[in-house]
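FIELD: query
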Amino acid sequence: MSDAAMRELLAYATEQRYHDVVWYTDGRAWGVRGGEIVDDERIATLTRSLRIPPPEDGQPLSIAIDVSPYRARAQIAWAQDRQVVQHTLRILADAPWPLERLRIPQKILTWIAQRQRGLVVISGDVGSGKSTLWQSIVRHLIAPAGRTVMTLEAPIETIIGHPRVAQHDVPRDIASFALGIKHRVRSNTSVIVVGEVSDAETAEQMLSAAESGALVIATMHTSRPIYALDRLVSLVPAERKKVVQVQLASTLAMGIGLRLARTIRKERIPVIEILPAESFVRHAIREWNMHDLESYMETQARYTFLKYARMLKNDFNVFFDNGEFERVTDDRSKELEPEVS
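FIELD: result
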């Protein structure tokens, strides 16, 4: 790998605000900005002869290169489809974002940070800001309050840089997410961040940790919080589902959904949906009535994607090209100023 070629690619990708750059050995290449694929001839040119052999252990390769006037950090992952190799370069932040840059109401961030126990599920598509959200909350609100944090990530994307935060790479530092959560029992960790929940053992260990008094923050690749709950329960065997539903109903503190919207200045800002752990929500989860939860979100929830979009339309002059937000109009933008219950 040529340092000069990688430096040029990183400099260009950072300048274009790409969070991922993808290229194949057959010549296909693009950038990803705010979750959207951007066909970019410059990316294709810069990556045409850039071939990076994967490490023997097959894990993502971390690199850091000086790209004047800053230092760019990135990770490269590989995948192979027949004779074609895919490279994915992820541009990493040097530190968690400041809270004000998230553009999420402070009362929501504070409410999450002040939970002493329970489960907070952050859901969203790839590139929607799930990691950015929990990293900023941990760095700026939870750790400074004197609480110890253990993160389980695959891989570590941003160095949080606080003495009370211990970041663990799965599987380099700990063999699995489930094993990492078990380790928490033998430590005085009060907050656990689970970067990926994709198997029954991780889901059940996570719920047990929340029951035992930890605050667990988990991210899941689903578009809405209620779909994240459904995914959690679907991971476990049929004979364990009822137990998990009861655990989930008793431990859920909040479900947060994230999507990105565009402003007229082409910025990407988060649109959020909140599933609060109210008594009705807990009862619906315990009885596993997803229809009632859907109805609740449509009729009673204070933060849904559409309601929050209307509020953003007023505050940030946002427009939405997703059909789900086409009903947002200026005359309805001041419709509510919701509070977190």
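FIELD: remark
Residues 99-332 form a domain with the Rossmann fold fold (CATH 3.40.50.300).
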